[in-house]
Request: fold
Amino acid sequence: MPQSSLSADRVFRLLGRELSEEDLREALFRSKVEFHGRKDGLLDLEVTPDRLDLLDEGGLAWELQGILNLAGGLPYAPEPAPRPGVEAHANPTVSPLRPELVMATASAPPGQALDAGDLEELVRFQEILHATLGRDRVAASLGLYPLERIQPPFRYVLEPLDQIRFVPLGGSEEMGGREFYATHSMAETYGSLGRSEGLALTLRDSRGTILSLPPVLNAAGPGELRPGDREILIEATGTRLSRTREMVGMMLLPFAARGWKIHPVPIHRSGNADPGREAVEPRTLPVSSGSVAQVLGIRLTGPEMEKGLLAARLGVDREGTECLVRVPPWRPDILSSLDVVEDLAVAHGFASLSPVLPVAPSPGRTLPFRRFLRRWTQAALGLGFQEIYTPLLMSREAAERFSPPAEALRLSNPVSREFSHLRPVLRATALDFLGRTTGQGYPQRIFEVGPVVVRDPSSETGTRTDVHGVLLEAGKETGFARAAGILEYLTRLVGIQTSREPVDSPGTIRGRAARVRWAGEDIAVCGEVFPAALAELRIPEPVAFVEMNLSQIWSLRGTPRAPGTGSPSV
Amino acid sequence: MTDPSPPDLGLSLSEPERKLVRTLLRSGTPSPIPEEVLARESGLPSDVVRGALERLRAKRLAILDERHETFHRLSPRGREVHQRGLPERRLLEFLKEGPRTLESITASGILTPEEVSVAVGQLRRGGRIRVGPLLEAVPPVPERLPEEEELDALAAGRSPPEDATLRLLRKRGLVVEEHRSLRSWKLSPEGSQVSVAADEAPLVGPLTAALLSGGNWEKVSFRPYDVRAEVPRVVGTRTHLYLSWLREFEEILLGLGFEEYRTPLVETEFYNSDVLFMPQEHPARSIHDLLSLEGVEGSLPPRRLLQAVRAVHEGRPLPRQKVPLSRGWQAPYRDEVAKRVILRSHTTSTSVRYLETHPKPPFRMYCIDTVFRRDAVDASHHFQFDQCEGVFGKRGVTLRHLLGLLTQMAHALGIREIRFRPSYFPFTEPSVEGYVRHPTLGWIEVLPGGMFRPEVLRPLGIKVPVAAWGIGITRLAMISLGVSDIRELYTTNLDLLAHARI
Reply:
């Protein structure tokens, strides 16, 4: 989950009061913020992925004000019209690479300006947004500029590298586009997002000054923010309009929480103009007390609803028990009225929602197939075998001990070589188990009931999950006859009357493996393990095994598989 | 009940034990008596004597005096040479008839060429022959050579003292050195008190079929056993401790009226994520989080379901509807992502498949099954673990019912303190996390759940509200079992598995 450390002093200043660690922890337990503690003046916080706004100082302060009943509602009203002359042009050349451009402006109220702490905070929040909502800048990325030192209208264009000359942010030397993309560390990380062959994306002002090379790096110089700045241009580029708008909407929060005035910025593209209001204006959603009751199971009066919604820091226009809710642009998690109901539940407090225990109309039921597996387990215990538990994944070597090469399914992105293949037979991981118990005396008798995965082109995943039961015995007295005797006993138990037939089974001594077929299907196999596998695993005693396909047996006993799933349906 | 008095101890002895105690008492000497002497005098086979004496020792009735000694005996070749005569003796006897050439000795056949060589070497070194063109005995020819005398002693069971002759015989491979322990026994003070009169009727040990047949058992007395004596260690077999825990947890759900459902471990991303309204570019769906299968082709779900899921993802109205359920993810939906084949990352895919195949409410379904994440294995992470998933749905179900079910589950586990806070899952709204108070770990999050979003339910044709939860049951099991390292669930310690507490 996203996490960050916020300045306690700055949050408490915005909140309007100090809180002890305990009070803060209790208050935040009611929200989607997990408070891990306060250290060196910083609050260590983690939020659920839908509430990135709570990782901003202003967003967190607003949330706390709502929870503690210190303030409520949505003190946010963007200007409907753009600032005169502030607009941008997105050149059609950008479309194949990074088509979207969204902007807004923020103006400080009288007596306010950015200080060094604000600048630090803006960069911190911006980087959180890059890493999360922006998908490490791939989906969208942000830039902030001092409107007082740059000249609108702005131009977003894909232009030849040779035309680009600028001083990268944090540097002092002017660089050409080619040199920047060839040498700069930021270009190494993000270069592929902003460059296409000999061309690169640029954002320039009307004087031709390069403000940034989206989404890689801003320019130093006039486009660089400084303490004392009072007029800010917020810009985002991205691959999709909705996500690009969300980035700008989110970045409005630090300014809105400090009372700055927000203006939209129109974007011109191929003769069309987007007035830019969608990025800055609250959306409206209706919520009624009826819909709240349906979801939460509590009936709220109109004033109760209004109070809750205000505490959730949403705007509300109420008529009776019907509310029209204003959702700010930094709340992209609110997709529909239902999400507003959740906010209402949070504001109301989950602790005040008394649990209701639904009465069970009848006793529950396990699947008949699972009851069959339990009976098989009891039979294996009765034979004196110990139940074991092994993972589904194993190494290629283990997979190929009992299966022809390439039969076992493979992961395309395994974490390690040791766990790269899915077992097609259960004896593969069970023998591995015996390879780890060599110092524990013999005889050893183990069994497992567990899933295996095999290829099945008729299934929608191209695979089938079957449940197998396997028994392995290691010791001087074991051998084919012992395994075959156990298999005969178990086949009698599951109600199969059929005889063994010889089979060439990989990993067994030739002439010492047998299978049992029923209704044309292989349902069980037994055999003596070939010494090479034992030597490889340093197992000093012979090993014999019995493996039964319990899914198959269950199906053949008259229970059809659920369509498409490969598993018995009942 | 009282402890048996010392004289009764005699009754608990087996017949061989009683016989040996009698033999030791009869000897009348406080000195230990060699084991073989006891065997001879008691008339019992030596292995029976050994076992019985050891048992007497375990019962503190007899004391063992054990000494170790080195002794010599004839090797098989030594025995053969002793019988046929030493090569040097045979050569001396031949030479008694007069000097001979080496060739004539060999030709006579009384010695093999190797024996000639050994005999000549030994006799010349001892100054008993002269070697020239002819070999000649130096009179007087001794009656017995020292080597012969030592071989005679060894053949008679005596072990001569270590000297140059013995060393020579050992070097020639005719004699071998061995070590043995001399085991002698005497009675302990308690043993001397034991009542083992010879005229007592023999006591019967094991009850045999012969005794049982025809009522023979009525004619005998049974020897009481020393019930405190050590017995062979017996180890049984048990169900696996973790799997047993899961099976017991399942009973809670059965008690709450839930019915089980299961689906395969391998899923398409459609069922694992898309139908759950998880955006296709959700970070939890990256190759860093999901385990993908190679070389298999997934197929798309039924067309109607696919169209509906595509519509909710893109924020468009469902087929035959005018208003979208929500603004969706505002991103184009991609079929190629939906078809990718993975190891499922949660059992919520089971809930979805259940709802798809059982669209008629009410719903009361649970499943406890395995899921996979792309995590490296360490004490707290594993690529494989289990979840307990469930849905409860019918008209009128609300978030409070979900809180009730989660509370009930906690109570069934013996947990009284539980509290809820808001959480987030892409497929539920509202979403909750249930925290329970653990005596040592404090408040821990173990009970997540929520109300399925309409974006999940409507494409499946479900029109009633559905509460859902997905508990990380492995973590709960580890806490309950006191296991701090997830790898311990896969323990290969057979003794530990066989001793899972009942």
User: Anything to note?
Assistant: Residues 116-131 of chain A form the longest helix (16 residues).
